[in-house]
């Protein structure tokens, strides 16, 4: 019996492939567990339409993420910190503070997406890398100024 895989299967193949399996295996295991569906004409058309819709959705998500990345690249974020005479701050600017400041500016960025090697502990302008969804990377500037 020919079936279309709904999910990746370690032995049979990847999602969307049409594979040939024994009737009992298909009817008793693959189809009831929603791993595969029969490969007839109607199921093939339905599955192709689902793949097209999913591809459109992914393309839209990538475009939205790239737009967010372009907006972030133009941004210079100001963080006010208390500092001593030698420009060292009392405390540090970490990814949590940066994420909260970005949220206040209207950008939805999680602190885990901000790639900060170590917290910022001095005054100045720094470039911060952000890894957004769909493997889109961008950066923005942070200006740490004295309060």
Describe this structure in words.
The longest helix has 33 residues. The model has no long low-confidence stretch (mean pLDDT 91). The strands form three sheets. This protein has a four-stranded mixed beta sheet with strand order 4-9-8-6. It has three helices and nine strands. It folds into two domains: 65 residues, 3-Layer(aba) Sandwich (Ribosomal Protein L9, domain 1), CATH 3.40.5; 79 residues, Ribosomal Protein L9, domain 2 (Roll), CATH 3.10.430. It is 35% helix and 31% strand. With 147 residues, the chain is of the alpha+beta class.
Task: Compile the SSE list and pairings.
Elements: E1 2-5, E2 18-20, H1 23-30, E3 36-38, H2 41-73, E4 76-81, E5 88-93, H3 95-104, E6 114-115, E7 120-122, E8 124-131, E9 137-146
Parallel strand pairs: 4-9
Antiparallel strand pairs: 1-2, 1-3, 5-7, 6-8, 8-9
Concise summary:
With 147 residues, the protein is α+β, with helices and mostly antiparallel strands. It has 3 helices and 9 strands, in the order E-E-H-E-H-E-E-H-E-E-E-E. It has helices at 23-30, 41-73, 95-104; strands at 2-5, 18-20, 36-38, 76-81, 88-93, 114-115, 120-122, 124-131, 137-146.
Broad shape:
elongated
- Straight-line distance between termini: 72 Å
Runs in which pLDDT lies below 50 for 5 or more consecutive residues are none
Order of helices and strands: EEHEHEEHEEEE
Main-sheet strand order equals 4-9-8-6
CATH class of the largest domain: Alpha Beta
Helix percent reads 25-40%
Please, how many helices? Answer: 3
Decide which structural class fits the backbone: alpha+beta
- What is the radius of gyration computed over CA atoms, rounded to a whole number of angstroms? 25 Å
The CATH architecture category of the largest domain equals Roll
Main sheet summary: 4 strands, mixed
As for the CATH topology of the largest domain, it is Ribosomal Protein L9, domain 2
CATH homologous superfamily classification of the largest domain? Ribosomal protein L9, C-terminal domain
